[in-house]
Amino acid sequence: MVEILSPTELERARHTGALVADILQALKARSAPGTNLLDVDRWTQTMIADAGALSCYVDYAPPFGRGPFGHYICTAVNDAVLHGMPHDYTLADGDLLTLDLAVTKDGIAADSAISFLVGESDRPGSTAMIRATERALDAGIAAAVPGARIGDISYAIGSVLRAEGYPVNTQFGGHGIGSTMHQDPHVPNSGRPGRGYRLRPGLLLALEPWIMEDTAELVTDADGWTLRSATGCRTAHSEHTIAITEDGAEILTLPAALRRQ
């Protein structure tokens, strides 16, 4: 199903997107060496409830995974990249953490992900990988204009990632979003321009470039959810929910500091 939002629904989507962004930034600020992933999940649960919103993850049970997911946020560390299930793990200085969050408020969902380094230490290549996903996301958003096609977004994202030397997996990618978290159209992180669904105002998309440092192959943890790089290399993931408007793409999940600019 491809859903086109009305102006009233789009206004509600703006509020949901801002909530997702604010929760992610609050969690980033609290994620330090010594933080347990289960605490991150509990903090997320509290913030969602305090906002009068609903988790998109707790009861999520798609054909993949071993559902329902049962947690409020995806927490992926180092070689984990997607659907990271919170578990009893204490973050260490230099860990590369990805937080992926989707909530519904007033009937509209928003979805966003951020990757960042925990503490003060860096590992060669980690920051570059994170920046590559952010640049690819920027390129995808720039391509998301009325009349363009999904393939134009996919091509823009994949071109940036490949130019920086990263393999691209197209098994999981971006997606439509609206009254539910996952909708058509699928937005692969590589594709051919001029192909696929034509964009029109009112369409919401969650664009999410993600990469693994030296492979495009995934393996699944025993939990049935957490996806890791097959080689054990580090990974990164950036995601925004955007709305197609008459003037181009509006980013709905910007942090508060950027929303004020």
From TrEMBL:
Q: Does Secreted count among this protein's keywords?
A: no
The record's comment on cofactor binding reads: Binds 2 divalent metal cations per subunit. Has a high-affinity and a low affinity metal-binding site. The true nature of the physiological cofactor is under debate. The enzyme is active with cobalt, zinc, manganese or divalent iron ions. Most likely, methionine aminopeptidases function as mononuclear Fe(2+)-metalloproteases under physiological conditions, and the catalytically relevant metal-binding site has been assigned to the histidine-containing high-affinity site.
Q: Where does the chain bind a divalent metal cation 2?
A: 111, 175, 208, 239
Q: Name one GO molecular function term.
A: metal ion binding
Specify the Peptidase M24 domain's residue ranges. Answer: 12-246
**Subunit details for this protein?**
Monomer.
Natural source organism: Sinomonas atrocyanea
Q: What is this protein called?
A: Methionine aminopeptidase
Functionally, this protein is described as follows: Removes the N-terminal methionine from nascent proteins. The N-terminal methionine is often cleaved when the second residue in the primary sequence is small and uncharged (Met-Ala-, Cys, Gly, Pro, Ser, Thr, or Val). Requires deformylation of the N(alpha)-formylated initiator methionine before it can be hydrolyzed.
| Coiled-coil stretches noted in the UniProt entry, renumbered to this chain | none
Task: Name the gene for this chain.
Answer: map
Look up the record and name the cofactor or cofactors this protein needs.
Answer: Co(2+); Zn(2+); Mn(2+); Fe(2+)
Question: According to its UniProt record, which protein family does this protein belong to?
Answer: Belongs to the peptidase M24A family. Methionine aminopeptidase type 1 subfamily.
